[in-house]
Design a protein that fits this description.
Elements lengths: L2 H25 L5 H13 L1 H12 L4 H11 L1 H16 L7 H4 L2 H11 L3 E12 H13 L4 E6 L6 H15 L3 E7 L12 H5 L3 E5 L19 E4 L3 E5 L17 E9 L2 H16 L20 E8 L7 H12 L3 E5 L3 E2 L2 H12 L3 E7 L5 H17 L2 E5 L3 E2 L3 E4 L3 E5 L3 E2 H6 L2 E7 L1 H15 L2 E4 L1 H5 L3 H13 L4
Parallel strand pairs: 2-3, 3-4, 7-13, 9-11, 10-16, 11-12
Antiparallel strand pairs: 1-7, 1-8, 2-5, 5-6, 6-7, 8-17, 9-14, 12-18, 14-15, 15-17
């Protein structure tokens, strides 16, 4: 058989597989229409390459297996969840702050959909600078007596990464239980030997969804984008900072790294601990059992009510997205949003446009430079629709803004790992803190206002004057946005 005949046969096989795969995408996979059309275009216009891309990026994660471990391990909080649901239904929930009661519909929705227990009387500190955040985190790790649990999407083999590793090794040698969970894709550049000193010291390390075949991860689409740190079950960190020198502003490409991270002391840490245990037990063969020492008695020291909300392929509902929409719909005066990527689906975009057209002051802040080009131009494409409706858009100029925050009327806010994009809503494993505390939320408002002074406003008139090459990039990126 000639080479030409073999090539023709191989291409024919791929074309047949493409047709079968296209039918699978349309009739069997549960996707939104935009993602379905995007994959069909990829499969039909670049059949061989498209087939390979679909195998790597396009497969939906089987929820059945995930639900099995999730349901079994959530038994520890179901009793509290049921109690709070019943009290909210009966109207006798003991709110310590009556201002939280006005958001009981949101509290109830997050509770029912995600077992996001409302915890009261937490103390919360806000970090916007990586140096300050990591200094505080390392100080808390130094003081750890029982355990340190970390989950991060990105961990680097650089100055910060090695400084943290050395500290964890030191604590492990002291007898503190140290567990580190990292995302296999986000931290793919880590050398295998990086964690060897920690493992030799007695620490435990696990990768989330590692590649079965080296350098070919067929679950690349489903990543653990969460960033959590829990120390002794009493102190927790949640937000946008990963572990690497760029988050200290040491990367010349990005410059100053502007993010938002929270340090929480209080019972909200119990929910963060539960989240870590669920993720760890999915990824590791060395399971964590629910023990009292992991959930110690904590004295009430603050005034902030918090719900820790998770979402991902293991979730029946898109909880964080629903929380965003509910928060948007609750606003009467203003909505402040900071996100590095703005690629919302139609439900979120419509909610924001409805808010603007109803007289709500909607303000969006995005970066002035891309870390992912297609995502950046897709963001600009969506920004145009908000500008047309009358929203204000600010381009952050003082480095790179990576914060994921949303504030409504200075009364309620969300801070966490979820961007305003389809990937965060449906594909990534994410976690956010919904905050009910006017004083704390007003601090986030002041932070936004300070960032505005370091930004330039993008008007609709300026947007319409962008060059044709930019419009082309936007159009292509927007077409691909359902699969980005």
């Amino acid at each position: 058989m000639t080479f030409a005949a073999i090539s023709t046969a191989v291409i024919s096989i791929f074309l047949i597989l493409n047709i079968v795969l296209a039918g699978f995408v349309v009739f069997l996979e549960r996707r939104d229409a935009g993602a379905t059309w995007a994959w069909l275009l990829v499969l039909f216009f670049i059949p061989v390459v498209g087939f390979v891309l679909y195998l790597i990026f396009g497969q939906n994660l089987s929820r059945k297996k995930i639900f099995e471990w999730k349901d079994k391990r959530k038994i520890g909080i179901m009793e509290i969840t049921d109690t709070q649901i019943n009290m909210l239904r009966n109207g006798d929930f003991p709110f310590h702050d009556n201002k939280t009661a006005q958001f009981k519909d949101l509290v109830y929705m997050l509770l029912v959909n995600d077992s996001a227990v409302l915890t009261q009387d937490n103390s919360v500190d806000i970090f916007t600078d990586g140096n300050e955040k990591f200094q505080a985190l390392m100080n808390d790790i130094r003081g750890a007596k029982d355990h340190v649990h970390l989950v991060y999407y990105i961990m680097r083999n650089d100055r910060l990464g090695n400084e943290l590793l050395s500290l964890l090794v030191e604590k492990a040698k002291q007898g503190v239980e140290v567990r580190v969970l990292y995302d296999a894709m986000g931290s793919r550049r880590l050398p295998r030997k990086f964690f060897r000193p920690l493992i030799d010291a007695g620490g435990k390390v696990s990768a989330f969804f590692p590649a079965i075949i080296p350098h070919l991860n067929l679950q690349v689409n489903y990543r653990n984008h969460r960033k959590l740190a829990i120390i002794d079950g009493a102190v927790g960190y949640i937000g946008g900072f990963n572990i690497g020198d760029e988050y200290l502003g040491l990367n010349k490409r990005f410059g100053y790294w502007r993010d938002t991270h929270l340090k929480i002391y209080g019972k909200a840490v119990f929910a963060m601990q539960t989240r870590f245990i669920l993720d760890w037990n999915q990824a590791s063969s060395s399971k964590i059992n629910y023990e009292d020492r992991l959930f110690p008695e904590i004295e009430a020291v603050g005034d902030t009510d918090v719900q820790i909300v998770s979402s991902g392929p293991d979730s029946e509902w898109e909880q964080i997205k629903y929380g965003y929409i509910k928060l948007i719909n609750s606003a009467k005066d203003y909505i402040l949003i900071q996100t590095p990527y703005f690629i919302p689906d139609s439900s979120v975009l419509d909610a924001l446009k409805i808010a603007v057209l109803s007289g709500v002051d909607v303000r969006l802040m995005i970066p002035n430079k891309p870390d992912h080009p297609f995502v950046y131009w897709a963001t600009y494409s969506n920004v145009g629709e908000l500008l047309k409706a009358g929203a204000k858009v600010y381009i952050y100029e003082n480095g790179f803004i990576h914060a994921k925050t949303m504030v409504a009327d200075g009364k309620i806010a969300s801070v966490g790992t979820a961007n305003i994009d389809v990937r965060s809503f449906r594909l990534n494993f994410e976690v956010n803190a919904f905050l009910y505390d006017q004083e704390l939320v007003e601090e986030l408002v002041h932070i936004f206002e300070k960032d505005v002074t370091l930004s330039r406003e993008l008007t609709y008139e300026q947007y319409l004057q962008r060059p044709k090459v930019i419009r082309f990039k936007e159009s292509v990126s927007r077409l691909l946005s359902p699969v980005l």
